[in-house]
Amino acid sequence: ILNVEQSPQSLHVQEGDSTNFTCSFPSSNFYALHWYRWETAKSPEALFVMTLNGDEKKKGRISATLNTKEGYSYLYIKGSQPEDSATYLCAFYNFNKFYFGSGTKLNVKP
Amino acid sequence: EAQVTQNPRYLITVTGKKLTVTCSQNMNHEYMSWYRQDPGLGLRQIYYSMNVEVTDKGDVPEGYKVSRKEKRNFPLILESPSPNQTSLYFCASSLGGPFYNEQFFGPGTRLTVL
Lengths: 110, 114
Description:
Helix content of chain B: under 10%
Radius of gyration of chain A: 13 Å
Shape of chain B: globular
Order of helices and strands of chain A: EEEEEEEEEEE
Oligomer: heterodimer
Structural class of chain A: mainly beta
Structural class of chain B: mainly beta
Largest sheet of chain B: 7 strands, mixed
Radius of gyration of chain B: 13 Å
Largest sheet of chain A: 6 strands, mixed
Distance between the termini of chain B: 36 Å
Strand content of chain B: over 45%
Number of helices of chain B: 0
């Protein structure tokens, strides 16, 4: 079983704050790293699929970076809004299987 | 509308009574997968399918079966459910392999086994 770790487990920020979280994964046999956003009572929705070392992806105020050599990815949210409140999941894809971290739960206070 | 559907959405059953949770996608996706979500744990993959008639075990396949006879459908079968299979289940699909392609998740099925 591969170990994918996310930190912190939870985060409380004020509206307008910028924040970031970490996903750590095995640095060997890397295929892809996915980020998902999961709102309460809904299904996970894809944010990014990252495949190359040094990848940087951006969607609006959310961006992500990837370092496959050291086995980590960062997710950044600039100017957090209450609607950003959700659990953010990363998933390591390796030999056709997915290994998810347990998520970072973000709460943005107005 | 492009989507992944699951049925039922909620199910309460008793130990040992066989059940099937259906999953269907209308996006012509090749890769399909089942996950379970338990408190404090990340999503754990149960089974996946790269294409029709091609299925393989994920991390936690014990107690589950799947089949992929058609591209659009990927049912999850619990032959003899037990209380430790009480969980929230998600089906997901992606176009081609998830190497480049995002997964689309169904709405989830909350299963309680008494």
